Amino acid sequence: MRLAQHNGTWEVRGLTTLEEAGELLNPGDDFVLGLPVAVVLAQRLRLPTVDPDEFGEMARIQIEKAMPYSTEEMTTGSEIISQAEEGSIISAIAVHNENLSELAAPLLSRGLIPRQVTVYAAQRAATHAPKGSALLIYPEGESVVCAIAEEGRLSFTRTLDAADPLRLQQDLPQLTLSAELQGINTSFSKILLDESLYGLRETVEGIFAIPAEFMAVEVPPADTGLNLLPESWRQRRAQVVKRGEWRKRLIWAGSAYAALLVLFLIYLFILRFQISRLDRKIALDAPRTEFVKITDARWRALAPAIDPGYYPIEVLQHLSDSLPSADVRITKFDQSARQISVEGEANAAALAYQFAERVKKKPELKMFQFEMASPRILPNDHAQFRLEGKPR
C-alpha cells in the first residue's frame, strides 16, 4: 500500500506502515489512499449501453451477486472502459467496509480521512498505460500483482505469492487464459514491469515475446475516477474540513484582532509620546505664559483708569445715545471697577426692552456684557427697569 499527500510539491518517501504515514499528516489534509488489490474485488462487466448515470447502479447489482456481503457492508465504484451501441464495458471495483476500516485504522484513529480511496493498481494503470491494453507487474508487500488495464482502467487482477521466475512461467499463461475467457484482449500493446522486479524481465519477455518496459514510482500518480470512499467517511471528512475552515477563520480573526491590538498599542504609545512632548513644551513656555497672564490681569485692572471707553462720562453718554425716545429716562447711574448699574423708567415695558437691546448692540459698549431683569410695572403702567453690565 502507498500513501501520497499533495501539498504543491511532491516528495517520495518509503514507509512500511500506515502508522508512519499518519505521523506525517494532519486532519483535513488532502491525500489519496491507494488500496492493494488483495482487499478489493475487480471485475470487468459487459452491460447494455444505457445512460452513464445508471452504470453505477447496474455495476453494484452485478457485484452484489459476486460478493458475500450486503450493499450496506461494501462500497463500490466503476469506470467506463469502452462504449458502443451493442454494449458497454466497465471496470467495477468493490471493497468490504469492515476490511477497509481495519486497514485504515491507523489513519482513522488520528482523525485522518482521505479525500479519495482508490486502488493503487488503477493509479499505476492510469499513469503508465492510459491507452490500449497493458499488463502491469509490480510488488505489493511480499506478493506480486499482475494487473491488466484497458484504456487506463483496471479490468483484471491476480496476486502471486512470490517473485519467482518458475512460478511466473506457470501462472502467467493461466492468467492470460482466464482473462481471455472474460473477453479481454491479451495481445498487450505494452508490458510494464516494476523496476524492482528487474530479474523477471527475461521470463516475462519469453512468455509474451514483446519487450517489457520498466516503471518507477509515480510522482505524482495520475488521477482516477474511481472512488471507494464510504459515505460515513465522506460525512466525517466534510465535518473535519468544516472544522478546519472554522479553525482557520478563528485564527485569521484572532490574528486580525491581535494586529488591531498591536496597532492600538502603537497608537497609544505615539499619543503618550506626543503628550509628553507637548508637556515639555508647555513646561518650557510656562514662564512666558505666566508673564502674559500677569500682564493681562494688570492691564484689565488698569483698564478702567487708562482706557477712555471705561470713563463714566463716556459710558453715560453712550447709554444716553441708546435711549429709544424721551419716554425712557435714566433715573440712576452707578459705575465701579467691577460693574455698571443703570436704573430707569419707561412709559411701557416694551420701551425698556428696546433700550436694553440697543445698549447691548452699541459698539462703544461692547467691552461690557449687559443683562436686564424683567421690568417692574408701576401703578401708572410705567415700567421700572434695572440694567447691569459687567466687563467681558
Instruction: Report the sheet-strand fraction.
Output: 25-35%
Say which CATH homologous superfamily of the largest domain is assigned: ATPase, nucleotide binding domain
Q: In the CATH hierarchy, what is the class of the largest domain?
A: Alpha Beta
**Helix count?**
10
Number of strands: 16
Uncertain spans, ≥5 residues at pLDDT below 50?
A: 1-6
Could you tell me the CATH topology label of the largest domain. Answer: Nucleotidyltransferase, domain 5
If classified by CATH, what would the architecture of the largest domain be?
2-Layer Sandwich
Biggest sheet statistics: 5 strands, mixed
Strand order of the largest sheet: 9-8-7-10-11
Order of helices and strands: EHEEHEEHHEHEEEHEHEHHEEHEEE
User: What shape does the CA trace take?
Assistant: rod-shaped
Task: Return the average pLDDT rounded to an integer.
Answer: 85
List keywords for this structure.
Nucleotidyltransferase, domain 5; 392 residues; alpha+beta; 3 domains; Gyrase A, domain 2
Short description:
The protein is of the alpha+beta class.
Explain the layout of strands and helices.
Blueprint: E1 2-5, H1 18-22, E2 31-35, E3 40-47, H2 55-66, E4 74-84, E5 87-96, H3 97-103, H4 105-108, E6 116-119, H5 120-128, E7 133-140, E8 143-150, E9 153-160, H6 165-181, E10 190-194, H7 201-208, E11 212-215, H8 231-306, H9 312-321, E12 328-335, E13 340-346, H10 349-361, E14 368-372, E15 376-377, E16 383-391
Parallel strand pairs: 2-6, 7-10, 10-11
Antiparallel strand pairs: 1-2, 3-5, 4-5, 7-8, 8-9, 12-13, 13-16, 14-16, 15-16
